[in-house]
Amino acid sequence: MFKEVIVVEGRDDTRRLKEIYPDIETFETGGSALDQSKLDQIKYLQQVRGVIVFTDPDFPGQKIRQTIVASVPEAGHAYLNKADARASSGKGLGVEHASVSAIQAALAGAMTPVSTRVELITQAFLVKCELIGHEKSKQKRELLAYQLGIGYVNGKQLKNRLNMFGISEAQVLEALGLSN
After folding, report:
1. For range 95-113, the mean pLDDT
2. Burial class (CB within 10 angstroms; exposed 0-12, middle 13-18, buried 19+) of 52
3. Measured between alpha carbons, how far is 58 from 84 in angstroms, rounded to an integer?
4. Residues 82, 2: contact at Cβ < 8 Å?
5. CA-CA distance, 63 to 32, in Å (whole number)?
6. Do residues 12 and 31 make contact, with C-beta atoms less than 8 angstroms apart?
7. pLDDT surpasses 70 at 128
8. What DSSP element (H or E) covers 26?
9. Which of 55, 111, 163, 164 could form a disulfide with 61 if both were Cys (CB 3.0 to 4.6 A apart)?
10. CB-side exposure of 177: number of CA atoms within 13 Å?
11. pLDDT tens sequence across 144-165
12. What is the spatial order of strands in the sheet that 51-53 belongs to?
């Protein structure tokens, strides 16, 4: 099904993905303390198969993702929203708790950074769209992130994330339900 190896945090994530995709191959980071050996393995996997980073939508998951991006900037990314990753008991947040449909949608929507970074989105555009610097910016960013499948981003991360994936102003406006 996937030619890429899916990078997850731990064995519970692997178990959950194998329930949905029995033939899927994963690489487990073992948590946020990624050492150079594991980063080298992820680099190698990216070269030979490609990787998709699929971590929990929490601080440790974001830390793992950032560490991988710094070493393997061409890695693909799949994101779960916090609401989709909550355990039914309310205690727990992660890939292992997500529904089949949420996991399938996240992996189907996996995105790869563009090879040449061009600034398609500017700070001024984000202000104009009220995505930063306004009373309801957080809600608008959450809607945008959900619509585009780019994971939660704060105001400081938004411009970089949009440019990383080559998302244009037109795509942002469409996702927000605004016209050019």
Report:
1. 92
2. buried
3. 12
4. no
5. 7
6. no
7. yes
8. strand 26-28
9. 55
10. 5
11. 998 898 988 888 889 989 998 8
12. 26-28, 5-8, 51-53, 76-77
- The residue assigned the tokens 């050996």 is 37
pLDDT of residue 156: 85
How far is Cα 122 from Cα 155, in angstroms, rounded to an integer?
Answer: 12
- Provide the pLDDT for residue 8: 96
CA angle 17, 111, 99 (to 5 degrees): 30
Mean pLDDT to the nearest integer, 158-180: 88
Where b means 16+ CB within 10 Å and e means fewer, 105-144 reads: bbbeebbebeeeeeebbeeebbeebebbeeeebeebbeeb
The tens digit of pLDDT for each residue in 44-101 reads 999 999 999 999 999 899 999 999 999 999 999 999 988 888 877 777 889 999 999 9
Which residues does 70 contact at the CB level (< 8 Å), separation at least 6? none
Which tokens go with 28?
């487990």
Its pTM surpasses 0.70: yes
CA separation, residue 105 to residues 94, 99, 148 (Å): 15, 10, 12
